[in-house]
Specification:
Number of helices of chain B: 6
Largest interface: A-B, 44 and 39 residues
CATH topology of chain A: Cytochrome-c3 Hydrogenase, chain B
Strand content of chain A: 5-15%
Strand order of the largest sheet of chain A: 1-4-5
CATH architecture of chain A: Orthogonal Bundle
Order of helices and strands of chain A: EEEEEHHHHHEEHHHHHHEEEHHHH
Number of domains of chain A: 1
CATH architecture of the largest domain in chain B: 2-Layer Sandwich
Shape of chain A: globular
Number of helices of chain A: 15
Distance between the termini of chain B: 28 Å
Shape of chain B: flat
Radius of gyration of chain A: 21 Å
CATH topology of the largest domain in chain B: Beta Polymerase, domain 2
Structural class of chain B: alpha/beta
Number of strands of chain B: 8
Oligomer: heterodimer
CATH class of the largest domain in chain B: Alpha Beta
Helix content of chain B: 40-55%
């Protein structure tokens, strides 16, 4: 059968469009309904994060990191404080390390839940979204219990935490895990093996491994392409080297390796791994330990620079910090995983139908707050 | 009058530093007394930091060489290899944390960094631009190898007047957007980049925001641009 050529058309998706997960404009060149080129236009949510950082003190940067990836504020805090502690040579006590890991893994589950739900929503599955938000709500309750905030926490500080765990947190978290673990199978039944969902995602938007690496794609998107790469294992920070967990990689369960379905399924499996880490961290959480113990009186890192990467739910989150010895960063660059993930869209979306572009975009799980900063 | 007060405080601080706290404590005026005490504390801290600055610096250096012992050796190895293959492109050797290069041969060196099998830096992790002062802009590249799991940082400094660095966008595709961002924020031109436009700011924005002497434009399409605050009040 020959290819039918229609009239070429340029179509703008966004900047105000539910499928773009924020304010993003995709300029799509289509030939009939087949997409030949996707050009993203960014910057609608640019809030001058890096310029602001050069005008505030190091501790005042933390609330800004919250607002970059507003769906994974804990891990954004985490990356920044780990980088600062490395730069300043601060060691925090065991309890702080454990609490940080617990928070980061809860955040990972919460972020994946929203990412997966919104992905389903993008391609027309409304019900799973509600199920996932219902369970994400329980995690937000845990966060609210800890630090009073539900979305932007400012919880991790350089050298410590803003609050110790409240009474009953550990029990509540265990209760949540016991409740949530069987729910994952429910999601699997709702979406992963759902015929319509599989038809829409399997084999669609395949991202080969070498292309993914060249485009700097990281995190679950890279792992779905078959590359076993997780900073928690490969460049362990904090106390991640103590926990036993696996790195799920895409195996092309329904189609081929690196397709949209793989990117979805890797995230589902990652939630299971996070539960494993959470159970270990909760059981080894030391009862004693002051969370303010190693807070520095003044944050004045020595002259020098550091590039520190941590594993956020979206991938390698890097902070490049250049210090000139004062209490204000000389230059602070955030290497955002969603930024690199979005850059690959033209490469993998070309040749697919317009409706598939939205599926591909959803599978990359981007957050515009982090892309535009 | 305030100069008199300053002189008095300076005298008192000098006395305090030698251990004579009596003269400060005996001041009648409460404001003056607290001012003198604050000045004394500041002077003591300054003296202390001067004492500890050197050992601290040494300590942090030791630490970094400990932590990145493999990367230090790696940097040395890469430097030697570059010196052999691309003579004259290395700027002062023996920097522990990074490799400093001249921009001229950067594209060839970058191609080699990726293809050389003992290095195979297949992942460009981060690309940053910094205004280091003295009319110098610097581009910094953080590389990582998925195969060997090693890591290095490369810095290329260029003068502001001719801030042009060869683009590596065709070697690592992510450099496309990274370089666009650096161009957007610092105005470093990447020669050979196929699509060098601003990425986060609008195309008709004026100036390079992350240069240290950046002045915000007054209006943008009739909209008044709010001025940056100096510090945090």
């Amino acid at each position: 059968m020959g290819v039918v050529h229609g009239e070429e058309m340029v179509l703008n998706i966004g900047p105000q469009h539910p499928a773009t997960h924020g304010v993003l404009r995709l300029q799509v060149r289509t030939d009939g309904e087949v997409v030949s080129e996707v050009t993203p236009y960014l910057g609608y949510l640019h809030r001058c994060f890096e310029k602001h950082c050069e005008n505030v003190t190091y501790e005042q940067v933390i609330p800004f990191t919250d607002r970059c990836d507003y769906l994974a504020s804990m891990t954004n805090n985490f990356g920044y404080v780990v980088a600062m502690e490395d730069l300043m040579d601060i060691k925090v006590n065991e309890r702080v390390e454990h609490i940080r890991v617990i928070m980061a893994e809860l955040q990972r589950i919460a972020s994946h839940l929203l990412g997966l739900g919104a992905f389903g929503l993008d391609i027309g599955a409304f019900t799973p979204f509600l199920h996932m938000l219902r369970d994400r709500e329980r995690i937000l309750d845990l966060f609210e219990m800890t630090c009073g905030a539900r979305l932007l926490y400012n919880y991790m500080w350089v050298g410590g935490l803003s609050h110790d765990l409240p009474v009953g947190f550990v029990e509540s978290t265990y209760r949540f895990l016991d409740y949530f673990e069987p729910k994952i199978d429910e999601f699997v039944n709702l979406l992963v093996h759902n015929k319509i969902f599989v038809e829409r995602t399997a084999d669609v938007g395949r991202l080969p491994q070498d292309v993914a690496i060249s485009y700097g794609v990281s995190g679950p998107n890279l792992r779905a392409s078959g590359q076993k790469w997780d900073l928690r294992k490969d460049d362990p920070y904090s106390i991640y080297d103590r926990f036993e967990f696996d790195i799920p990689v895409g195996e092309g369960g329904k189609g081929s390796v690196g397709d949209c379905w793989d990117r979805f399924y890797v995230r589902v499996l990652e939630m299971k791994e996070s539960i494993k880490i959470l159970r270990q961290a909760l059981s080894s959480l030391p009862k004693e330990g002051d969370v303010y113990q190693s807070l520095p009186k003044k944050i004045r890192p020595p002259i020098g620079s550091i590039y520190k990467r941590t594993e956020s739910p979206r991938g390698d989150l890097g902070y490049y910090i250049e210090s000139d010895g004062t209490n204000i960063p000389y230059r602070l660059k955030m290497r955002s995983p969603a930024f690199t993930a979005l850059s690959v869209i033209d490469e993998i979306a070309a040749g697919w139908l317009l409706s598939d572009v939205l599926a591909i975009l959803g599978s990359l799980d981007i957050v515009l707050g982090e892309i535009d900063r | 009058m305030s100069t008199d007060q300053d002189k008095l405080i300076a005298e008192l601080v000098e006395k305090g530093l030698t251990g004579d706290m009596e003269s400060i404590n005996s001041i009648e005026d409460r404001v003056l007394r607290s001012k003198a005490k604050a000045a004394l504390a500041k002077a003591k801290r300054a003296a202390k930091s001067q004492e500890t600055a050197d050992p601290q610096k040494k300590k942090s250096e030791e630490k970094s060489s400990d932590d990145f012992s493999s990367s230090v050796n790696l940097n040395e190895r890469i430097e030697n290899m570059i010196n052999e293959k691309f003579p004259g492109s290395l700027v002062n050797k023996n920097t522990e944390t990074h490799i400093q290069l001249k921009p001229d041969q950067w594209f060839d060196i970058a191609t080699w960094l990726k293809s050389e099998s003992s290095l195979s830096f297949d992942s460009l992790q981060c690309q940053t631009g910094i205004d280091v002062g003295d009319n110098i802009l610097e581009a910094r590249y953080n590389f990582h190898s998925m195969k060997h799991k090693h890591y290095t940082e490369i810095r290329i400094a260029v003068p502001r007047q001719e801030a042009t660095i060869p683009s590596v966008e065709q070697i690592w595709r992510i450099a496309d957007w990274f370089e666009r961002e650096t161009y957007d924020m610092l105005g470093i031109e990447f020669s050979g980049h196929r699509d060098l436009r601003r990425i986060l700011l609008p195309d008709d924005w004026e100036g390079w925001p992350l240069r240290k002497d950046y002045q915000v434009q007054e209006t943008y399409h009739g909209i008044v641009v709010p001025k940056m605050k100096e510090g945090w009040e």
